[in-house]
Amino acid sequence: MSTKTVLQSLETRVENALAASGYPGVRANVHRSSHPEHGDYQADGLMAVAKANGIPPRQLAEAVLRRLDLGDEISHAEVAGPGFLNMIVSPDSLVRRIRAALRDPYLALPRVNDDAVERVVIDYSSPNLAKEMHVGHLRSTIIGDALTRILRFVGHTVIAQNHVGDWGTQFGMLSAHMSTCFRDERSDVLLRDLEVFYRNAKARFDTDARFAESARDYVVRLQQGDPVVRSIWKQFREISLSHCEEIYRELGVALTTEDVRGESAYNDDLPLIVSDLQKKGLAVASDGAQVVFLDGDDARKTGNHCTAYILQKRDGGYLYSTTDLAAIRYRVRELEANRVIYVVDARQSSHFTDLFSVARRAGYVTSDVQLDHVSFGVVLGENGRPLKTRNGGNVKLSDLISEATRRAYDVVASKNPGMKEHERNDIARTIGIGAVKYFDLARNRSTDYVFDWESMLSFDGNTGPYVQYAYSRTRSILRRAGAWDDTAPVRLSQRLERRLALNLVRFGDAVLAVARDSSPNHLCTYLYELAGSLMRFHEACPVLTSDEEVRDSRLTLCLLSAQTLQQGLNLLGIDVRERI
Length: 580
Ligand code: ARG
Known about the structure:
Distance between the termini: 37 Å
CATH class of the domain at 3-89: Alpha Beta
Shape: globular
Bound molecules: arginine
CATH superfamily of the domain at 3-89: Arginyl tRNA synthetase N-terminal domain
Mean pLDDT: 94
Low-confidence stretches: none
Number of strands: 13
Largest sheet: 4 strands, antiparallel
Number of helices: 21
Strand order of the largest sheet: 1-2-4-3
CATH topology of the domain at 3-89: Gyrase A, domain 2
């Protein structure tokens, strides 16, 4: 079942009218009006068509208007300004859509048809296991998780891949250090603080020549599959992964052990990749290394980027880039992906441009497979530089989560002095973590942002707590209402009822916008606007004290509002509470 959203329906109607006026295949460009006097929706695609064809824009708009099939979707349409088409959505359509959404677990979102279902691999979080997860992993983890949830909701098959860094020279050093410390302590105790462990190993490596020698020997043995070294490495890897899983659990991120396929998984493929690319005439020797030269189109023209993709160093070692070729090949061949999304920070964008180009030339990725680098900016501190601890270290995610919860606790405690301690703690966790996630997801992902506790924990503005509060407040009304006739007619007689209804039926459009450009901020903006219209509705339209008919109609609006806020936040990986 797939009924069009309001936007899709209006767009089709205007496009049909354009075609009937002699302009087939033209995009209608319908968008929501920013001013009520411009109707609910406005088409501004007509202007460009008129200009291109040398006819007065208003004349074209009039012609389109005459041929516009209003159906039961549009109650009024008119030409406005220099040649816009303004449209008002009919109350019948709003009510019908509200009913449909209430009956549907997908809230009337038109999911993809069976023949359009994609197999999407999303590479996200992907921390380096040598160290503890820090703020540098925050954005990939939460943006990737939101995209996973949203693409699944829309109907695609999503395969999450946590491409953890679990291979390379660092792991030789760590295993060597671990093997000597083993005698004294159990490995889980030893690795309770990965940062300290890493620092100690590194310090030893830098100052103790004999240890450095043995670390290098460990790297070779690890690569050759020496069972003793492998088993130490495995233990390290497992403990480090369990730290990550703890973070995922606390953040409410859906990644599991099954989604982990780290760099080490591709180790055996690396020589094959190089020889395959040599056979294909792509890999050539350059200064003793094996590289693929990027041809003119692929190489970025400016700057002093190297224009070769390095596969194997002169000493025989392989690189991050080699592993990524093996991974992309696996994703297309074995996982049968139609689309691969990499949620990785913007600093790696040239790596991905090159990777995609080489992978396509090598035939690992055919033209029907879409590759996307979903990039994002840096989390900054108040000083405008990448967020660090006071002494310049990386901010660990575990510390960030504790601080979020602690700060949210203070906010919750001041709002609810009488609340029981365990309830406060529970709510603080939901608000604190929701605030951090929402603050990030609400921003345009491509820009950097300043991490600001005060704004993110505020109950005012486009924040997690604001949307969570709008949900709780609505739930509380529904709770107090007890049973009511939820089949009673919905009436939209007040302006604020109608505004709320218009926002409610936009849910599908907002979710589809995120799926279209992998930008969760569209959904945040939507939820913020929905919450805003809901709060204004609560101020102006009494529910429980109204006559039964009005009351039941308003309770129905409350119910769908609560469900939509809950579902919307859930798609962002954010929880709600019945009470705040
Ligand atoms: N481990 C890498 C890092 O921390 C990110 C990996 C992203 N995924 C990939 N397939 N390269 O920078």
